[in-house]
Structures are given as structure tokens and as C-alpha cells.
Amino acid sequence: MILKIFVDEHEQDIHVPDSFLTEATDYFAMLDKDMDNGYQMSRTWVEKPDLLQRCQIVADRILTALEQNNRETATLMAAYILARVPNAYAMHLNLEGDMTLYELETR
């Protein structure tokens, strides 16, 4: 599977092996449990992040991973998005520092 990541004008495909979606379910559950306690999304505290907000949080981790050239973490975070939103096609990110503006594109 592929999740397209758009950062401003730059596009990058993250190739996620199908096995990641099933092998990382425990890790995904741990991420969800962590976010169940609320999350600081840029300047806003979100008590109970919904699915889109969870994808924005994880997409912010993708952005950090790409900036640090950490493909493994970027792939794992992309797998989370694809596992939670199977019809996800792309995430549109920006470098402005506000993850609440990230957009999830579905098919």
C-alpha cells in the first residue's frame, strides 16, 4: 500500500508492506491508548482525539521522521493511518507548525 505525503509543494510516497498492517496491531493499540488520555495538538489540548485528529497526530510524527531521514518510523506511522482509515490516499502537511491544519485525503 502507498500513502502519499505532501509537504507544502513536495510529494513523497511511503510504501507500506501489507504485513505492517497486521504485524503492528499491538503498537497501533498502544498509540491509541496513549492518545485516549488526550493530546496537545499544536496550541490546543484535545481531551478525546477523534479519528481525524489521531491521523493528524501520527502525520506529525511522519513529518518529524522524514525530517530526520527515519524511513522506518515514517513507514510505521503511515501504516497506522492506513490501518485506521483503509481508504486513505494522502496526507497534506505543512511546515507552519500547526498539525490541526493537516488534511487527510481519502479515495
Name some characteristics of this structure.
107 residues; alpha+beta; 4-stranded mixed sheet; two-stranded antiparallel sheet; 4 helices; 46% helix
Q: Can you put this structure into words, describing what you see?
A:
The chain is of the alpha+beta class and 107 residues long. It has one domain (2-106). 46% of the residues lie in helices and 26% in strands. It has four helices and six strands; from the N terminus they run ββααββααββ. The protein has helices spanning 18-23, 25-36, 51-67, 71-84, and strands at 2-7, 10-15, 39-41, 44-46, 88-93, 103-106. Strands 2-1-5-6 form a four-stranded mixed sheet. Strand 3 (39-41) and strand 4 form a beta hairpin. Helix 3 (51-67) runs antiparallel to helix 4. The longest helix has 17 residues, at 51-67. The two termini are 13 Å apart.
Summarize the structure.
The protein has 107 residues and is α+β, with helices and mostly antiparallel strands. Helix content is 46%, strand content 26%.
